[in-house]
Design brief:
Strand order of the largest sheet: 3-2-1-4-5-8-7-6
Number of helices: 7
Order of helices and strands: HHEEEHEHEHEEEHH
CATH topology: archaeoglobus fulgidus dsm 4304 fold
Number of strands: 8
Shape: globular
Radius of gyration: 19 Å
Strand content: 15-25%
Distance between the termini: 34 Å
CATH superfamily: archaeoglobus fulgidus dsm 4304 superfamily
CATH class: Alpha Beta
Structural class: alpha+beta
Number of domains: 1
Length: 309
DNA sequence: GCGACAG
DNA sequence: ATCTTGTCGC
C-alpha cells in the first residue's frame, strides 16, 4: 500500500514546494558579486566546484551524491567526496532541488567544516538556475542555501516560458560553429532566461547555461566555457565520474582495475574576450598543433552525436 | 486525448 | 537519471 510513486507527490506537497521556492527566490542575486567574475581572465579565481547525483540502476531510492573541487585554470581535482544517500523525494520536473539539494548541501557543509581552505569560489550545478518554471531551479536553490556563487548547467533545454526546442531553435544551434558561440534564450516574458552555449569545438549539442546565484549570465557562460575540456564542464564531469565510480564500488561490481590517470592536460584556452554571440568572428585556424593529448575516450559523453536523447 | 518531462 | 560497444568523423 501507499505507493504514491505512480502519481507522484500529492498536490499539497507540490504546493508547499512552490511556496518554498518562491520564498527562497527572493534571495537570489543574479549579478556578479566577486571581483574575479569581472576579470577577463578570471584572475583571482582558484577553485571551482562541481556537484552531481548518480543513481543505482534498478533502485529508485539509493543514489550517490558527489562534490569535487578543481583548481582553476588547471582544472585538477584537489578534493572529492562521495556519499551514498537514500532519496526521499521523487523526481518531478520543476522540483529537482527537493530531490537532490539536501545531500549536496550536506557535502558542502562537510567541506566547510573539515577543509575550509578548499571551499570552491563557485559551483557548477547539473541542472538549471533561473531557467525554470518559476525562475528558481536547482542551481539557484543550492546557491541560496550555501550562499555560494552557482551556475546552472543543463544538457537539455527546459521548455518553459515559451522556449521550445523547435525548428527555429535547432537552426540557431546549427549556427553555433565554434567553442564559445552562444545565443540568448529569450522567454515570452521578455526575460533572457539563459544562454545556449557551444562548449566544445567537437560537440554539436549545446549546453544551457543560466544564472544560479551571485553571478551574471555573461560571467557564467564565460566561466563554463573555460572549464570545458569536453562538452561537459570538468567540475560537473568529474563529480559525475566520481559518483558513478562510488556506486560501482559500493555494489561490489567488477569495475575496471585501476585504469585512471589521464595525466594533467593543459587547461583549455579561454576565449579571450568578445564571446558575445554568433560565430564567424575572425577565428583563425588554430588546429595546427598536433594534440598529443590522451585520446578522448569515446565512452565518455562527448562527441556522441545522439541528438535524439 | 496528446504532448511534455532539468536530473 | 539508467542501459552500453562499437563506430563514424576530423
Amino acid at each position: 500500500m501507499a505507493l504514491e510513486a505512480a502519481g507522484g507527490p500529492p498536490e499539497e506537497t507540490l504546493s508547499l514546494w512552490k511556496r518554498e521556492q518562491a520564498r527562497l527566490k527572493a534571495h537570489v542575486v543574479d549579478r556578479d558579486t566577486e571581483a574575479w567574475q569581472r576579470d577577463p581572465a578570471f584572475s583571482g579565481l582558484q577553485r571551482v566546484g562541481g556537484v552531481d547525483v548518480s543513481f543505482v540502476k534498478g533502485d529508485s531510492v539509493r543514489a550517490c551524491a558527489s562534490l569535487v573541487v578543481l583548481t582553476f585554470p588547471e582544472l585538477e581535482v584537489v578534493y572529492e567526496e562521495s556519499r551514498m544517500v537514500s532519496l526521499t523525494a521523487p523526481y518531478v520536473s520543476g522540483f529537482l532541488a527537493f530531490r537532490e539539494v539536501p545531500f549536496l548541501l550536506e557535502l558542502v557543509q562537510q567541506l566547510r567544516e573539515k577543509e575550509p581552505g578548499l571551499m570552491p569560489q563557485v559551483l557548477l550545478v547539473d541542472g538549471n538556475g533561473v531557467l525554470h518554471h518559476r525562475g528558481f531551479g536547482v542551481a539557484c536553490h543550492l546557491g541560496v542555501l550555501t550562499d555560494l556563487p552557482c551556475v546552472g548547467v543543463a544538457k537539455k533545454l527546459l521548455q518553459v516560458d515559451g522556449l521550445e526546442n523547435n525548428a527555429l531553435h535547432k537552426e540557431k544551434i546549427r549556427l553555433l560553429q565554434t567553442r564559445g558561440d552562444s545565443f540568448p534564450l529569450l522567454g515570452d516574458s521578455g526575460t533572457v532566461l539563459g544562454m545556449a552555449l557551444r562548449s566544445h569545438d567537437r560537440s554539436t549539442r549545446p549546453l544551457y547555461i543560466s544564472v544560479g546565484h551571485r553571478m551574471s549570465l555573461e560571467a557564467a557562460v564565460r566561466l563554463t566555457c573555460c572549464c570545458c575540456r569536453f562538452r561537459i564542464p570538468e567540475p560537473v564531469r568529474q563529480a559525475d565520474i566520481s559518483s558513478r565510480e562510488h556506486i560501482r564500488k559500493s555494489l561490489g561490481l567488477p569495475g575496471p582495475p585501476t585504469l585512471r590517470s589521464p595525466k594533467a592536460q593543459r587547461p583549455v584556452a579561454c576565449p579571450k574576450r568578445d564571446s558575445g554571440e554568433s560565430s564567424g568572428e575572425g577565428q583563425p585556424p588554430q588546429d595546427h598543433s598536433p594534440g598529443p593529448r590522451t585520446a578522448p575516450r569515446p565512452g565518455s559523453q562527448e562527441q556522441t552525436g545522439k541528438d535524439w536523447q
